Amino acid sequence: SPVQSGGTWANLRFTQIGHYGDVEFRHYLTETAVQTFVTGTMDAARATALQRLNAYAAGANVRHDMVTFIQPIAQICDKSGWLVRIPGPRGMPAPNSPRIKLIKKPATNYAVLTVSLVKTKTTANGQTQANVSASQPTVQAIIVAQIWLLDVLKHTSWEPDGKPMAWLNYRKNQSVYSGYTYQVAVQIKPRH
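The structure assignment produced for this chain is given below.
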């Protein structure tokens, strides 16, 4: 379920600093974010995390303020569960739940790859047909994209500086949020 962020979603600003094929290299400025840790499957953990963060955005914080979040939503696999993080505006209020942490990330570079939801099949006469058959990629598709992203980095002047993560961005179609676009990303640093 979407996070009710007090209205519209803004996108975290970045500067594209390069690309390699479909992989973009981006520089993001300092960000403030809230995050929570959840166990379970990728989808179930995200749903639980978004419920918690929705409550925070709706006023379950020390100032009882409505908070407008910024995209993307990041979901990172940890040894025992999932960390879900959403950027927000500077000066966000402290959470009133110990399960939600307010963090500040320094300026960071990321390698980013958009994950396609388009599946193709070959017909009997050899033609390729595209079919958008899912509203979200499978966990396996995310994992394959993360592995591919890490492999691409081996051919660039960048190397990973953290764990790969899934990024979700709300798609807006005529002022109605109609699902997500998915990306995989990893923090990067210059190769030595």
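Interim note for the steering committee: The radius of gyration is 18 Å. The longest helix spans residues 42-57.
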